[in-house]
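2 proteins. here.
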Amino acid sequence: MLRLLMRRLGQAALVVAGVVGLTFVVTRLVPGDPAVAYAGPRASEAELAQARERFGLDEAVPVQLWNYVRDLFAGDLGISLRTRQPVLDDLALAFPASLELVGTALFVAIAAGIPLGVLAARYKGKFPDLSVRFSSMLAVSVPVFWLALVLQTVFASNLRWFPVAGEYDAALDTTSPLTVYTNVTVVDALLTGNWPILVSTLHHLVLPALVVAAYPIGLIAQMTRAVLLEEAGQDHTRLERSLGFGETSILVRFSLRPALNPVLSLIALVFAYAIVNGFLVEAVFNWPGLGRYAADAIRSLDTPAVAGVTLLVALLYVLANLLVDLVQGILDPRARTR
C-alpha cells in the first residue's frame, strides 16, 4: 500500500504541475488586459502601470511564471480583479455550495445507479433490464442545461412543487439567521439546529441535485450491469450456482464486491465531471457556487479567478482519483501492483 501511495502521489504531482503550466499559459493568452479589468476602462496610464506592477504583468514571462508557481506554493492564488479579494477567500465561500450540490447528487447517483445496475444484470434481456438500459442511455444523452430547464419549468414554474432557484428562502435570513461554521448550508443548519433553513435548503436542492445526478446515474448503472454480467461468466459464479445459491444472492453477495473496482474508478471521473457540469446547473438555478463565481469571472476577464477555479477543479479530480486508487488497493490486493 505504501508503494501504491508513493506511485500515485508522484503521478498526481505530475498532473498538477501540467495543469499549473497550462493554466498559466491560457490565462496569458486570454484577450484583454487584466490591468484594465482591475483599474477600469477610464483609468489613466499611470493607474494602468500601477496595476500592471501590482500583478507583476510588467515582468518577463519566465519571471511571471516563477512568481506564479512561488505564490501557489505559498497558498496565494492572487487577487480577484472583480471582487478585489484574495481568490482563495472567494473560493472558500463559493466552493462549499458547489460541494453541497455535487455531494448530494453523487450520493443520489450511487444510491440509485448501483441498484439499477444490479437489477438490470439480474433480469438480463427482460423488461427491467431494457427499462434500465433505455433510461440510462437517455440520462447520459440529454443535455444538462435542457434537463435543468425542463425540470424547472415543469416542477417549479407549473406544478410549484419545488422552488425555482436559490439555495434557500431569502426571507429566512431575517426570521432564522444561520450561524456559519463550514459554509455548507445543510451542515451548518444541522450543527446549529436551524430547522427552517435545513428544510428550505433540502427543498431547494432536489431539482438541481437530480439534474447533476442524471448523467452519473446512467453511467454507474451501465458500468455496474456490464461488470456484473462479466462476473457471471467467471468460474466462481458457476461454482456458487452449482452450490444452490440463487441468482440475486450470487450477484449481491459474491459478484458485487469485485465489480466495485471499475465502478469506483468511474465515480472518480464522474465527480470531476459533475463539478464542471454543475456550473451550468448553478447558472440555471442561481445556485451560489463555483459555477456562478466562474461565470462572473469570465465575463469580467478576471484571469486570477478563472485560474483559481481551474486549479481547484483539477486538484479535486486528482484527489478523487488518488482516493479511489487507495480504496481499490484495500478492496483488491491485485490493484496494488498496477
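next one coming up
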Amino acid sequence: MKWVWLVTLVVVTEATTDDQSTPGIDQLNEILNNTTTTLCQYIKCQEPVKAADCPIGTFYQQRVAQFGCCGACVRFKQKNDTECTGSIDPKFGGGYSSMTPDLLDPEASSDPVNNTLVSSWCDFFLNCTEEGVCQPDNSDHGCRYVQDQYDSDLDEFPFYKVDFRWRPSCTPEGLYTEKQCKGPYSNKRCVCVDAYGTSIYGKAFSWQRDLYDNMNCMCSRRVWELQQEGVTSVTLHCQENGNYEPLQCEDDWCYCMDPDTALPYGSSFPDAMKEHLPCYNKTVTGEQYLRRCESQYHAEHLLATHIQRKGVYPPSTLLNCDDDGSFGGLQHDLDGLARCYDQYDEMIAQPAVRDCNCARDKILFTEAHLFTTLKCATPDQAVAGQYYEIQVFGGTAYCVDPDGVRAGPMVYSQYRDKLNCTAGMSCQNGNRSDCNKTCHECSDDMYVGYTPTLPQSA
C-alpha cells in the first residue's frame, strides 16, 4: 500500500505585458500558503484509512498528511524521548483539530507502506519540557492518571491491603473506554461507563458468560453521548451488557446492527415492514418496536414538545427508562418519594435515594439460583435499593462501591467497624496516601489475605 498523491489544479498562465508574473502560479502559491481547505479539494487521499488499520503504538489522526488534507497513523514521542517540539495533549497546546503538518517533525521518518508518520510531539499526558524532553504531566485525575498510579504502585503496598485495586482501560486521550472490568478476580464484574468513568446502563457478571465475553458497551455509550448533546428521546435499544440489539429503529425506519462491531448492515425498512429484516425476531421484538416504558416516555415527550410550541412549558416527565426500553430501577413518584422497581414496573424496594443496583442484583442472583447475602439498606438512612457500603460474607467484611464491586481490603468480620470505605475508593482513584488508611489501626493479622512470615530454622 502506498500513498496516492493526486493534485490537479486548473490554473490560468496568461501573463500580462507589464510584468513577468504568472497569475496561475501566484494562485497556486496563495493556496499552498494560506488556503489549505481549498487545496484539499484537489487532493485524493488513500482510502480507506481507519484507526483499526494503524500499527501498534500509533494513533490515527486526521489532517496530518498530504498538505494537512489526509489522515495517517502517527507515532508520538514517549517518556524521556528528546528533541520534542510540543505535545498532542490539548493541555499543552496541541489537539486533533489544530494539528497541522507544521507540527510534525519535518526531519522525522515516515513509512508510506504502513501509512505512518513520526511526530516530534510528545504523546498524551506527556509535557515537552524547555529542554526538549518528554516528561509526565502532574495531573491527579482521569483514567490515564489512575492507570499510571496503579502501575507505579504494584510493589508499593502489601498485596493483602490493595488486592481490590483494578487497572482501568483508557483511550489514547486519557478518557475511560466504554467497558471497564472492575474489582479483584473473586469479585470481578464488567460495567459500562461514560467517558469520565461513571457507570451507565450495561453490566455483566463473570458467571454470565454470554453477556460477559462479548461485552463492548458501544450502545450504552452512544445513548449517553446523544443525551449529552441534548437529545431527550433516544430509541436505540441496548442489550443488558450495553451492546446494541440486532434490530434498531429510529424516526420510523428500522435496520439491522451487528452487536459485536456496532456497524449497520443490509437495507433500511419502514417500521411497518421491519419483520422483513433478517435481524427481526418476533419473540424478542413483538409487533411494536418501542417497549412499555419508552413508549410512554416517547409519547409524553411528543406531547410536551407540542405544548411547548404553543408557548406553554409543560412539567418534565418523571419516568425513567433503561437503555433497553424497559423501566429503570429508580423511579420518582408523584408523591415525591423515590422507589425501586424491576424492569416490568413492579416495586421491589422503598424508599430509595441514590440507585437501585443492590435491589436489582438480589433479584438477578435469585433468578440465577445463586446464594447471596447482599445487604442493601444503610443503618443511618432507612433506605433500600443501593448497596450498603460494608458487606459481610463467610466471616469476612469488605467495602463495596455503588456497583457492588469490592473497593477495599478483606478483613475478618469482627473488625468491620475499622474499615474506611471512602479511603478505599480514593486509593483506587490513584490517591496513594489513602491506600494505608483503608482500615483504621488494623494490624496485619486482621487482614484475611495476610500470611505471617515463618521464622527461619536454625
